[in-house]
Amino acid sequence: MPQQRVYHEYVNEKLVPYWYVLTFKPFEINWDKPVHYYDVIKPFEFIERDEFDESVITFSLKISDFLVNRDYQNKLGMNIKMIKNRIEVNEIDPEVIHQFILPYPDVEEILHLVPNNRILEFQS
Hints:
Helix content is 15%, strand content 35%. The protein is of the alpha/beta class. Residues 118-124 have low confidence and may be disordered.
């Protein structure tokens, strides 16, 4: 499961989110699958924007890269096929990407896709 953070700054004493960042372990994403689902855990860890680690190879996402599926109620999906195509157009090996970033104002939209309460799934 990726590490999920929201990077922010304080503007006029108000917390303003700038980026939603997903950091993955090496080989955590299967680039051959069309979609990658992950658990979204709120509240997110809020980090000051100047603490962003620029040494991690990062790729920018779009709100259209995210998917919601009723069959995965506590998960958010990423359209890996579409993301991989954009990465490869830039002649980058997807395996070197370990972090995704979603800029503001898309941060607010992504937060609305995430349920505030987790739904427990029972196996019979």
